[in-house]
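To whoever picks this up:

The parser on our side crashed when reading a file containing two proteins. I've narrowed it down to the boundary between the first structure block and the second sequence. Both blocks are reproduced below exactly, byte for byte. First block:
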Amino acid sequence: MNTIKQPDFIIINNELRLRRYDGKYEAFLAPYRDPYICKMSEGIFDESEAPDLEYVKKMCEYLSYAGELYYIEVLENGEFIPIGDVTVKDEHPPISIWYEGYRGKGIGKLVMKTVISRLKDLGYNKIHGTAIYKWNPVSQKMHEALGFVRIGETEDEILYELDIT
């Protein structure tokens, strides 16, 4: 995917957009050190093992190489602020809503619908390899509501795929 021109912005609605990752991986450090994000996104339960700056740098480098990495931004007081991240890619597109106040409001679902649409526009017909931790029922419910089908499981994860033709 890294040969495809990534748009600077993908507008979802008047108050929600995706903004192309700008290389400033430091912005990911505090959110990814949050115990909730550590557990739900990274599978890290021990706070002493929380990601450090090198971890988020490598994560961002990988995600921006493997797909289109975006900040999820919401409009607050007349300006857009980052509240999460998502990567458009056909294998396990990761999404993270960084702050509790933005979770459970349907933002993740709108963002994933946008990811699906972008992948369709790029000519992909399937999302595969999506692995959701068993202790993350909210993400499981969102993926299933979007039509993702359970295809298996491991000790810790439920595996999904989605036909997007």
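<<boundary where parser fails>>
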Amino acid sequence: MKTFITEDFLLYNDTARELYHETAKDLPIIDYHNHLDPYAILEDRKYKNLTEIWLGDHYKWRLMRANGIGEEYITGERSDYDKFLAWAKTVPATLGSPLYHWSHMELLRHFNIDVLLNEETAPFVWEEANRKLESGEITPRKILEKFKVEFVGTTDDPADPLDAHQKLREEGYGVFVAPSFRPDRALGIEKEDFTAWVERLSKVTNSNIDTYDKFLEALERRVDFFDSLGCRSSDHSLTVLFFAEADLKEVSEIFKKRMDGERLTGKEVDQFKTYTLTRLAAMYHKKDWAMQLHIGATRNNNTRMFRLLGPDSGYDSIANPLCADKLARLLDGMEVSGQLPKTILYSLNANDNNVLAAMAGNFQSGELPGKVQFGAAWWFNDSLSGIEDQLETLANIGLLSAFVGMLTDSRSFLSLIRHEYFRRILCNMLGSWVEEGKAPKDMKLLSTYVERICYLNAKRYFSL
């Protein structure tokens, strides 16, 4: 049986269809935040089968577990074909999940496979997809080029060597693949591995980091290095928001105390994080980078499975950490010195959408439209209804026309279809407003919104 992914999928009125097909469909992609492997792009990796390119995805793993699939078929020792069959068995049980839409879109757009995936069609899908992979039709570079990707912003630790990025720059590869600065471990002074990570930073900067001043100097050197390779943004995962005032002397003493192996108080941890993030923000502002704050993921909730599989294996979920006062004071501490960088605020908890959309409005400026952004629907929220809610909240409280649009936030090259998914939802929402009499049928105006949100705003915002 053929899929339901028609030309007019999710487009429920004439205005929506015209906006999508005439404007949105063929726009280039700026995927400004993802977790793609730059080495896979560098070597143009050839994947041996569909499981290898498709199923290393904690979104799918969570649904397979919910469907009663044993771990041996997910991250365990069963064959790649057995793991694929387990996913094919799960797909029909996922109606209402974005995974049902994404899975069929990925098979159709990447492999030209237009059948519903289930246990009966699985052998055909496996054979046909693997044939295309074996032929070399589907590789990271071919995917990026097919989808008209102009920019890829990967996610990289400050102590990473960035070898692949350097080689891609030297090669002159046509897609702009840039690192993004992810200094979570630099802020994680309370973590057991903090001192070991500082040692890594020492080695990569060829410096002896024995004081907080030298720690900041090393971070600034890495900011300079990232910038030389085209970095356009930083990214921070803030499980819990923090704000505690401190001066350089106090933070220097806190750093020394931790490096000497002493325990820190909760207040000292917050003082270190607040001061260090503020100093980093000033570096970002100087480089004209954006600062992305991802707020509200509670990590590694299942201790037994964390011990078995480690992090990023599908056991993270939504927290409730947002304290509007702390966020306001953190941003204000950067703004008061005139060094608040371009900032994108994301929350994993959709209950915070109104708070973030309103918070962004406190720190706008004449530098550019939407300097502080209420970011795209993220992770558990990037479903059809979650994307609609984010767009409508931004339209209600902020300025939809200045929005920088969608990102994949994914480790999979096949996830680029999420830009199409977003574009269809956006066009349908605008078209629905017209049909309901909430907006004029001014196709020039509406097309301008679509072009800006899907492409031009991000191009300007990230200085591409």
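After patching the parser it read the second block fine. The chain is about 50% helix and 10% strand. The CA atoms of residues 58 and 312 lie 7 Å apart.
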